[in-house]
Design goal:
Blueprint lengths: L2 E5 L2 E4 L4 E8 L6 E9 L6 E7 L5 E3 L7 E6 L4 E6 L8 E9 L7 E2 L3 E6 L1
Parallel strand pairs: 2-11
Antiparallel strand pairs: 1-3, 3-8, 4-5, 4-9, 5-6, 7-8, 9-10, 9-11
Amino acid sequence: QVQLVESGGGLVQAGGSLRLSCAASGRTFSSIAIMGWFRQAPGKEREFVARITWIGSSTTYADSVKGRFTISRDYAKNTLYLQMNGLKPEDTAVYYCAAQRSSKPDYDYWGRGTQVTVSS
């Protein structure tokens, strides 16, 4: 099992910044190959934000956040980050951390989420 706990959400004005963290733990964490961030706004489906390979740190971003958000990880601390700059009201959502084992075709561990609210 892998446990994921997000933190760092909050209320920020448009143009501001936040850094989300996702602390990962569990005896099977060594099997994790990819970690990512997703978000879900009220009344909308969950959408992909960014992902990173745990080994090698290859990154991928949604077009809507490219150039504004940066995903990173601290290998020693088993922690995933999402630096969000230039926040817009449309970035308001619950942000979720997710992890995918190398043996699985999709993300199979999810955190409970952290709320990000951007005021105009």
